[in-house]
Write a structure and sequence with these properties.
single chain, alpha/beta, L,D-transpeptidase catalytic domain-like, six-stranded mixed sheet, two-stranded parallel sheet, 12 strands, globular
Amino acid sequence: MKKLLLTTVLANLIFLFPSFSQIDSSSIFFKEGIREKRNILYRNLVQNTITKNLSLPLSFDTEENWIDAFWAIELLRYQSPWINGRINTAIDSIEKRSPIFQRALLELVFSSYPNQYIKQVNALLNSCEDAKVFAMGVAYRMQNNLSPFPNNQLENKITQLIKTKKDEAIIQQLMYRIHPPSIGKNSFPISAILDPEFLKNQTVLFSFQRKNRNYPGIALVRDSAGNFIKDENGTIFSVPQLARSIGNLPGYLTNGNTPQGIFSMNGFSISRNSFIGPTTNIQLGMPFETSIRHFFNDPSIRDANWTEEWYKKLLTDKLMNYLPLYESFYAGKAGRTEIIAHGTTIDPGYYTGEKYYPQTPTMGCLCTKEIWSEVDGKRVESDQQKLVDALQIAGGAKGYCVVLEIDDAEKPISIDEILSLIQSKSALK
């Protein structure tokens, strides 16, 4: 591992050499990780959640059944000629369906049928009255390198869709993606992000990601004194971390990828969700999801109205105009909730051949790799436990989490690369 060269910008960064405790993995197990039980779950999802539900005639009364099937198809990456035919049936009547059904179907076709239903999505865009449905349809067109809207009346359509503050946030982020600001190749503020003045006196979980979320990012931990945690070998602690949702939609949309920006970090918890598993998770919160008082951990705050001005209080002058850092603010305003940092008990075999394998996507959370014994369900490997241990050494999971995309390289992020970025960007200060 390369050693970090201390330069002027990082003169105040001191790296901590902790002694990581050895966790007895045998004390943590997930009985559903046994191969026999995983096979039973797979068959049940295919036979009942997918096949049985899609065998029902599609109507208002059966929409929920079909939505459950869409979710299982995404989870398993499962397709067949018969299923494709049922998806054709659903998409051909999408204009007649409820907004909830439209969203679920658009999420599925965005991830699993990316270029097959442009005609039907165009028709839906012209007729829909739901801002989130509209944004999902535009995202579908844009991933096919098509203009955002099938005619020249985009602005007029957008003004018709804004009925609430959530709609306003969705449309604002949509327009940001349609007309992104000019951000130079070398404008990523790595020196400002890693400067001890950013979120000073706070424990920080950094999650650096690629623009293409198919490639795993990397998580680092800084304590409240500005020290980056090191592992037992004396190198900066890091673990791979996936910020990709199953649907791979933009981060401001429900079930989309983890948005960039600042999250409050609110302690540890244990989930009862069978796809997250028993390893300790890290609780996070976004603006609007939690109060200003809670987000800033300041009981003296009386203001209850979230604004950008409040969010900007966390930013240094050099970061104030870096718009990607505001994604979590607008995702919270658009209604996103329950994004946390957790491990996984999902069978990685569902994603064999994917760029992120053996990691598993989520519904939009930050996720670390875990391996469970297929013989007895014991935890064999856990990057999540390593991350929790690093935060414990840093003083606990109270502070902030910062998610940022560093570039569009088509490869996973390595710790050597982050060190190289720190060294090359530090001279810009």
